[in-house]
């Protein structure tokens, strides 16, 4: 049986939950990953009858100085344009969140745009985007710590509103470049296995992107503090990635179910895991992004996500689409009849 480091976990509750799952009117293990989800959520909530309250997805948006190097197929202004699209309800994450009854929050973590008098936008702006990490660190340590703290505070506020299941999304032109380097350094994987097409680069642009990231690593790696994930984050990360990292750490502290989206959110998780490895026990990985690096980092973590729909949009869309499966896991645990309830004979061999 999997070992869990959840604060409230005891051998007794693990045994009781597994017994409840196995007693349902089905062959043992017949509901596959839904059984694992039900077990995990029951352990997080330390109950035989877990529930999902005020499900929320927070989309953090931030701009990246590295975008000026042409590492994305889209120009930087698309970041703020998409934030406005989120707020008007026109983006994919808005459609899927509404469809599945999920609260959606949008955060300006550091977009290079002045959102004056914009209702429903959480203003947590650190700066007008990070610096170009090809030339200097993306952010200084104070900015990084500030972003982590703001991400944690935003999640804490959701917890105070009763939310016990939270997903993370992102928007930021150039952020696959940050995620690729974070993954490469923290997982000790060559950058070539981490870099993907992002918003849709062609072969020549992908090759150029890879060269730029290799050059940036070569420039900064002597100054990055070995074994210090925050040094990696501040040097190569984005404000939205840092806030997600802080939010993930806070969510685990609050015993929330944490829903992990795709490549960018997973890069933030990598930093969080270096700070607190037990965070992983609170995470459900919703889908495998079609971004090249994501399958490699999932393999590195020995994780099998719920879905593989060849998506690579970000925004938290994988979380929103996977959420009904998570509801199904708790519905079978809480409402499906047991062999005893249904007077069905258990297997004999």
Structural class: alpha/beta
Radius of gyration from the CA trace? 21 Å
Strand content: 5-15%
- The CATH homologous superfamily corresponds to Nicotinate-nucleotide-dimethylbenzimidazole phosphoribosyltransferase (CobT), large domain
In whole angstroms, how far apart are the ends?
22 Å
Helix content: 40-55%
Low-confidence stretches: none
For the record, the count of structural domains works out to: 1
Helices and strands, in N-to-C order? HHEHHEEHEHHHHEHEHHH
Look up the CATH topology: Rossmann fold
**Mean pLDDT over the full residue set:** 95
Q: Tell me, what is the CATH class?
A: Alpha Beta
Q: Give the CATH architecture.
A: 3-Layer(aba) Sandwich
Question: Shape, please?
Answer: globular
Total E-strand runs: 6
The biggest beta sheet is recorded as: 6 strands, parallel
**What order do the strands of the largest sheet run in, or round the barrel if closed?**
3-2-1-4-5-6
Number of helices: 13
